[in-house]
Predict the 3D structure of the following.
Amino acid sequence: MAEQTVEAGTESSKGLGRNEPLRLVGTVLLIALWVADLLVHHSTVHKVLGLVLIPVLVQVTISDLEERRIKNVVTVPAAFAALVIGLALHPSGLPGQLLAGVATLAFLTFFAIVSRGGLGMGDAKLGLVLGLFLSRYVITALVIGLVASAIFGLGVMAVRGFGAGRKTAIALGPFLALGGVVALLAGPGLHLGT
């Protein structure tokens, strides 16, 4: 019992800990994004992928902010769901989904290894999920997510000073989720090809 208390204390010291206002905002955001996904003029397959991806991104954001980790219990079923949806609704797009997922996983895994803990494997697995759901639009998600996190990091360094700001841990999951939402809602309108 003492071990559980110590582990819980350590976990919440890395993140926010269980945060009910954050969860409430997440629920409201989930509903708003579902409505937005239904209102955007996408194909049926994009709408279905969006309806499944949005709660994944909201959950990833909450868990990364609260615990500083992205859980396999969210990413693994999400990856399978993307493949099943693709296979059922758009089988000819499955190779593109797989290519985007594996390429994004490899890209983020490389940076997870190089950064020595600055980027976690949970972020890389989230990249796989984004690639499987967004296919070629994952590039949009990555660019937006990485640029937004860099801007946020610069802001932290400006407020805390370069030395302290550089050592401040920043959760990447919420920024990748932001990129994922933008790519989901705007991606097909960006004319990245046919």
